[in-house]
Amino acid sequence: MRRIPVILFAVMTSISVNAGAADNLDSLLARVEGGRLNKSAAADPAAALRLAAADPFKARVMLGDALDGSRDPGYRCSVIDVLGAATDDSVRKELAASALDPDPGVRVCASRQLGLQKNEHAIPLLVAGIEAYLGGSGNKGAYEDDFRARIAAINSVWALGEISSPKVMRELERLYRASDEVFRLNIAFGAGKQKTEKSGPFLRAIAGNVNETEPVRAAAFEILERLGLSGGVSGAPSAVPSAFTPADILYTGGQTGTISDWFTDMLPIGHTGIYGGTRTEDGKILTVIYDCVPNYFSPGGVRTVGWYNYTHHFKYPLYAVKTSAVAPTAAQRESILRVARELQGKDYGLTHVQQKGPDTFDCVGYSEYAYEQAGLNITPDEQETGWGWPLTPAEQYDAAVNVGTRPPGVWAQQTPSGIVAPNPGIITGAFGALGAAFGSGSAVEPPEVPAVPGL
Ligand SMILES: [Ca+2]
Ligand 1 centre from 318 Cα, in Å? Predict the structure, then answer.
């Protein structure tokens, strides 16, 4: 396998749509424009199509492609993205069906796009998808059968957060009671975005509940703090253990390039961090996360943050909490955390040539390095070379294993039938679009937690 020249990587990070779909987008644009394809439109067909989506007739042509299961999933994801600019409500209503698309890759990207589009028609479909996943049979957690089904369901929770409506708040409250820890944490993020006075009491109940785990309570505390509503909530230690153990790796979103589907949302794992545990400060439970982001972030480089900064202002969900396939011992976990702390203040390397230090790091190189220093190796070396250069968060995600997240009575019994195998068609050879992990290629502003009216 040959290595990809750095210059190619630099060029690729400027691509804003699924490169594999570009030709198809060109031909779609040509159809939409009746063959009158001008040069400026050809330079960025996705941007031209977004403009065209405001025309109901043209939007309907695009809708046909978006819902056409015979077409390339990456292309369909790009068209679903483009249709976020549609103004015809009947198009938006039909597009909502993509939340339950038979193609799991399309479900992953559609569930996110419908949230970005704040498509209220999608609410019942997103909820149905989450319920189908949570109630479905098959292995979950460390021996997940279908990681894309899980990501689609997590994206759906995130999307419900973006589609602020009283109906959503009721669904989030209901889903919270039947969800595992990662889902509950994302539900807390989503509740914080609801423009309803009900979200404050809901989050206060989570934050103060000693029968909820500390990472989830910490998420609620952090959101309440931003809303100015954290006063008077008890930060007494939880009586229930968390499945999150300090030194686990946290995975959130970003944009990840692969050979076949560059910069598609079909595999949205784009950023890693090291879970450092929780701490109590001023009676509030706070999360400690060590990660590494470009120096122009604030704070930048290797840093210590909470959920808000780690998820880039809740622009992405928490996708998974994982660790190496060979589980770290207690001593190794201490070593990982010590190395993570010792590297604080180091710079981020934008070229990714020096992912794992010693002078500069990127997010996935930082967490991989901390594990390797402890004698562990999350991602096999062959995935860090050749077409796999540089290592991406998605590749590491695939090599790591989930920690147990099964709540009683909801999940099918875990049977350790085998570790989830990498999906070479999707993951192997992924480029490290790490510089793009925080939103380049997207015109959408990071959502913020809004103020809660009336409180
Ligand atoms: Ca490695």
Answer: 23
d(CA 376, ligand 1 centre) in Å = 8
Amino acid, single-letter form, for residue 100:
L
**Contact present, 131 and 161 (Cβ < 8 Å):** no
For the domain covering 243-441, report its CATH number.
3.90.1720.10
Instruction: Name the nearest CA neighbour of 444 among 116, 161, 156, 160.
Output: 116
DSSP bridge pairs for 285: 280
Amino acid at 287: T
Domain spans, the chain? 243-441
What is the number of residues in the chain? Answer: 455
* Cα(17) to centroid(ligand 1), Å: 30
Which of 354, 385, 108 is CA-nearest to residue 255? 108
Mean pLDDT, 10 residues at a time, over the chain (455 residues)?
Answer: 34 37 76 67 80 95 95 90 95 98 92 94 96 80 73 94 90 90 94 88 96 96 92 94 94 61 61 96 96 92 96 92 92 98 94 88 95 95 66 85 53 27 26 30 37 35
**pTM metric for this prediction:** 0.83
Contacts of 57 (CB under 8 A, 6+ apart): none
Give distance in angstroms: CA of 324 to centre of ligand 1: 10
Ligand 1: distance of its center to the CA of 182 in Å?
A: 25
